[in-house]
Amino acid sequence: MAFALAPTAASEGYRLEALDTVGSTNAQALEHARAGDPGKLWVVSKNQQSGRGRRGRAWQSPPGNLAATLLVVADYELKLASTLGFVAGLALADALDAVTPKGSIAVGIDAGSGAGEGARNRFALKWPNDVLASGAKLAGILLESTVLGENRFAVAVGIGVNVVAHPDGLPYPATSLHKLGATCDAETLFLALSDAWADNARLWSEGRGLSAIRKRWLERAAGIGSEVAVRVDNRIVRGIFETIDEDCRFVIRDHDGGVVTIAAGDVHFGAVASAGAV
C-alpha cells in the first residue's frame, strides 16, 4: 500500500509528498516553506534517517516507522501556533484508535494514568508532546518554525510513531504498535492521521476553538491527579498534576499548596517522580 491522503483531507486542500528516504521530514517541510510553498503539505516517509526530538535530541526511527510532518504557513500569532502540538496529539490519538483493534492496548498506571478520564484511554497524551500506550512512549511530536517575512511564518508539525520497532536504551520505557500486538502499517496509520488532523484542525479553527481542543486533550491526558516532577531549566518542580490552563500550560499543585504554571519542561510521572530520580 502506498501513502495516500484521506478523502476528507484531499477535499480540504491538503497535499502529500511521500518519500522513500528522508533526512528529516521537518527539515524537508521547512525547506519547501522557504521556497514559497503555501502550506497544508504533508511530508511522509517510512525511512527517516536524521530525525530530531525536543531540545535538539535525536529521534531514532528504524525503517518501517512513520515520520510525518504537516507544513502550516500562517500569519496569526506564533504563540498561538504553538498549540498546534495539542491538535497533533489529539489527531494522532484518534487515528490510533481508528486503526487498532479494541481491547488490545491498556494504559499503564506508572505512565501517569490518574483517576480522571485519561485512565480509560488506550492512548494517553503526555504533556506537552508524547503519546503513551501501555505505560510507554509510542510517539513524539515536534514543532519547528521559521519566519518567512511580512508577518508570515511556517510551522513544521512533526509526528513520529513507533510502528514496527522502538529504540532501546532510553531513560524511559518505549514501545511500538507491533510490540503491542497491532498489525497496522505506517501507510494505514497515516491515512487515518490525515483524516483525524482535518477534523481536529477544523475544531481548532486557527485558535478560535482552542478551548474545545483543551477540553478534548484533558479527556485523554495522562497523569491528572498523579505525582509529577517537571524539569524546568536547571530546577525540578514537584507536586500533583492538576490541569492545563487556557493557554495549554502545565499546572501543578506543589507540596506547599501553591499553584505552579509551566510553559515548557520535561515531565516525569509515577515511580520516577515519586522517587526523585529525575
TrEMBL record:
Give the matching SUPFAM superfamilies: C-terminal domain of transcriptional repressors, Class II aaRS and biotin synthetases
Q: What is this protein called?
A: biotin--[biotin carboxyl-carrier protein] ligase
Q: Which EC numbers characterise this protein's activity in its record?
A: 6.3.4.15
**Pfam families of this UniProt entry?**
BPL_C (PF02237), BPL_LplA_LipB (PF03099)
Q: What class of enzyme is it?
A: ligase
List residues of the BPL/LPL catalytic domain: 13-205
For this UniProt entry, the molecular function terms from Gene Ontology, in alphabetical order, are:
biotin--[biotin carboxyl-carrier protein] ligase activity
**Classification via Gene3D superfamilies:** 2.30.30.100, Bira Bifunctional Protein, Domain 2
| UniProtKB keywords | ATP-binding, Biotin, Ligase, Nucleotide-binding
> PROSITE patterns of this UniProt entry?
BPL_LPL_CATALYTIC
Catalysed transformations (reactions) = biotin + L-lysyl-[protein] + ATP = N(6)-biotinyl-L-lysyl-[protein] + AMP + diphosphate + H(+)
